[in-house]
Amino acid sequence: MSDPRADALTALQVLAVEDSYALAIAAPGASGAPVTEPALDARLAKDWAVAGVVVGTDALWRKGCAATLLSDQTVFYGWLLRHLVAPGTFRCLIRGTASMIEWAEDAEGVPVSAPGLPGKVECGFYGIYASMRLRHPGSSVDMPLVAGITAIVGLGSLTIAGHSLGAPLSTYLASDLADQVRLGARVALRAYCSPRPGTTEYVEYAAALITDYASYANKLDVVTHVPFGLGYASLPATQTLWPVGKLRMDFLLAGDFLKSMHHVLSSAWLICSEAVDIASLPAIDKPFIDCLRLPKAAA
Q1: pLDDT digits over 120-144, tens only?
Q2: On the chain, which terminus has fewer CB atoms closer than 10 Å, C or N?
């Protein structure tokens, strides 16, 4: 079950996914074409091999979570990883929001029914989830996400983890895979800084189905409080992280407060600061390292 140090380390694995994608789309000489498979981050490659690549469609204002009115491009959302030493152990790591279109989808706020699910889910989040597919490494051939993961994991165990937009996507995936005809109790969920994935009826259903889950929310992170109203709720037993005295509140004056409160590195630090090896983090994370309130000896 949930362990703070282990959960902080899992948050750092999600950070490595987000860093990989951010570096790929910002690389000098990048063509501007959608990135569907960035290079595996070295922090992950030392323990894990890519068993599958998760892709999805960025699209704004999908009517009924299906039709698209604006953009329609396939992009990278995460990896299905197999442990190098324990090949029956898997991770599915889903990145957070990385584009203006994704932010707009985050803000749709329309509750909709989804086949086979009680209650309602958020249209923008679930529209992305419904578009997600799995690919073998190096391939452009899509497989159904749930069936593909089920086949690869087999009798193994799987932890699904996501941050920001990736957290409700991970919740939908975990609840689908936790069905007894798929992986059942061999699925675990770790959600960081999750916006509300659905109505109370849906999140109670997901929580009952996923026997091993932990959800973490920074008290001062506005993203974890949206969408507002309309019966939306967070996963039950979401653990509230209190940043005062642990993160730099003066970032409010610098204009970086909201980003810092929402960043997955801040979540890892608040869950278990001892698990965060500052020296091992790449330059891309430097602005968010600076928001951590470090002990004087480490300053």
Answers
A1: 999 888 989 999 999 999 999 999 9
A2: C
Element housing 153 (H / E)? helix 145-153
The residues with which 89 forms a beta bridge, in sequence order, are 157
User: Is 36 within the bounds of a domain?
Assistant: yes
Residue 175 belongs to domain with CATH number:
3.40.50.1820
> How far is 262 from 72, CA to CA, in rounded Å?
27
Residue 278 maps to a domain: no
Separation CA 177–CA 198 (nearest Å): 18
**272 belongs to a structural domain:** no
User: What is the extent of the structural domain holding 10?
Assistant: 4-243
| Whole-structure pTM value | 0.92
Could you tell me which residues come within 8 angstroms of residue 187 by beta carbon, excluding any fewer than 6 positions away? 157, 158, 159, 160, 174, 177, 178, 210, 212
Q: Are strands 48-58 and 133-135 parallel, antiparallel or unpaired?
A: antiparallel
Number of domains in the chain: 1
Here the tokens at position 212 are 């091993």
pLDDT of residue 254: 57
Is 274 domain-assigned? no
Could you tell me if 76 and 85 are in contact, meaning their C-beta atoms sit under 8 angstroms apart?
no
Per-residue pLDDT tens digits for 243-275: 888 887 776 555 567 778 889 999 999 999 999
Structure tokens at 161: 């983890």
Place of tokens 């957290």: 167
Specify the residue for token string 């909201």: 258
For 150-184, how does the pLDDT look when each residue is reduced to its tens digit (9 = 90+)?
999 999 999 999 999 999 999 999 999 998 789 99
